[in-house]
Amino acid sequence: MNEALQIDSTAIESWHAHVYFDADTTTIARGLYERVAAAFPEAEIGRFHEKPVGPHPMWSFQIAFAPTLLADLLPWLTLNREGLDVFIHPNTGDDLVDHRDRAVFVGKSHTLNLSIFG
How far apart are alpha carbons 82 and 102 in whole angstroms? Predict the structure, then answer.
């Protein structure tokens, strides 16, 4: 990458992890929701959405966390997600780029509805 085009990681204000589930995996998701809240009390656990919300094509709950928590939370989710898919993205102020170009999936990838970002 051209050094002039590099973006410093301090541009990341926070991170979001979205845990995807459906009617068949709701019980697993509720258990994971509780375990994340207990293991990472400094993270903000969002509502349990039993419908697609925003760009997300599945039911989900969000975990919002500081950049300093990424090194602990990402491996924990990778090992403890119980087969659920997790979409993780930084928050830099450019929602489209953050969701389209700077995101990672743990588990299966899903197509997001990026049209909501204009």
Answer: 24
Other C-beta atoms closer than 10 Å to the C-beta of 89 total 22
- pLDDT tens-place string over residues 87-96: 999 999 999 9
Give which of 61, 74, 72, 82 is closest to 103, Cα–Cα. Answer: 74
Per-residue pLDDT of the chain (118 residues; tens, 9 = 90+): 455 577 888 899 999 999 999 999 999 999 999 999 999 999 999 999 999 999 999 999 999 999 999 999 999 999 999 999 999 999 999 999 999 999 999 999 999 999 999 8
Q: Delimit the domains of the chain by residue range.
A: 13-108
Q: Return the C-alpha torsion angle 54, 96, 66, 79, nearest 10.
A: 70
What CATH number has the domain spanning 13-108?
3.30.70.1240
Which letter, b or e, does each residue of 13-35 get, where b requires 16 or more Cβ atoms within 10 Å of its Cβ? Answer: eebbbbbbbeeebeeebeebbee
State the distance between the two ends of the chain, measured CA to CA, in whole angstroms. 27
